[in-house]
Amino acid sequence: MCPSNIKIETPCRMHITLIDENGELCRVDGGIGVSLEKPQVVMEGKLGGDLVVEGVQKDLVTSLAKRFLDHYGLEEGDYLKVYEKIPEHVGLGSKTQLSLATATILSKLHGIKATTRELAHIMGRGGTSGIGVAAFEDGGFILDGGHSFGPDKEKKEFLPSRASKAKPAPVLAKYNLPEEWYWVVTIPNVKRGASGEEEFNIFQKHCPIPSEDVEKLCRLIFMVTLPAIVERDLEVFGQSLTKIISLGFKKIEVELQHPIIKNLLNTLLENGAEGVGMSSFGPTTFAITEGKKRAEDLMKTASDLLNERKISGKFFITPTRNKGAFIEET
Known about the structure:
single chain; alpha+beta; 5-stranded mixed sheet; 5-stranded antiparallel sheet; 38% helix; globular
């Protein structure tokens, strides 16, 4: 029997870096990222008459719902409402979480058995980075394995997720991070991260990335970042995140940002952050530290810097979300 009411609370994700935009080994993308407790999508759905969408991001959710319903040849007979959203086009994976929330609610209301990865492919998500899909599934710190690359492979050229029809990348590893490790998330109100044609053009212009950069990044991730997680060594973990800024595709993403981004990252390091970085194409930045009090101090540091530069922004303190989306059926 199908439930008549579904409520979903999703995580958001920070995409720390893509790993291989070189492709010499016939594989591209891959990446690391982390799932956060907030901000989040909170959404509810019920069976009803005509399709009715209420709440924030009404037009986008309507188009997402129609995409799902058209794929399965279903009548538009549902009520959807979004209570909370993730800020859009700032590097936190808002559209992936909203797409998966919409598709998951509708699939359960209509008795369709589909995995999260199948739903992501239907909704056109996860074609470059698999971090957002994996965050919805299981949360935590995530390493994904990218896509096969070449004339007869899954991906034939370097593309952002929005332009790729590839399936979500496989998860190679997932780790729970300690609850006392806090992320300080800052979203300066400057030019939004690249999207659409601009994002497509960046991939076309800057890829392939030199193989030496990819090799350095792989060594850093596999011999420093991941061991530091297993050994619960926040200092080394944070240092590895900071080094990532200067390597590979992430270096390009950071260089394309407003000057306040580098200034913000340096200021947070100078004031005690164990590590810093930027999510996806930004402008969202992050710092990691231990304990809520230290996180609050760093958030004040970020706020003071933006105020000094007369730039507004949003700020969050959040631990890692070590589980996937919460789904309640009645």
